[in-house]
Amino acid sequence: MNNSDYNKAEKAVNETENNLKNAANDVKWKVGDLADKAKDYINEKRNNDEEATQEDWLERVKSNISDTWEDIKDKADEAWEKTKDAAEDVKAEWRKKTN
Question: Which end of the chain is more exposed for a tag (fewer CB within 10 A), N or C?
């Protein structure tokens, strides 16, 4: 097996790692932003002469987290497929060389 096959596999793994790190950083930003979003929610309710409730706020947070989870899951699935495909390519090349 030549170095380019190993390089392709290594590149796929590195891309996977970067995609997952970026997704994790997005989540950290969203978690850090919750206090500001809570203030915005309270002000929005006040401006509309409505009552701000913990239950309503938690539903908004839950919805946001659900969207974030879907983003992370999509990136993880994509990363899995890229890594799996690269690994299969390397295995196929190895079989060709050894048979």
Answer: C
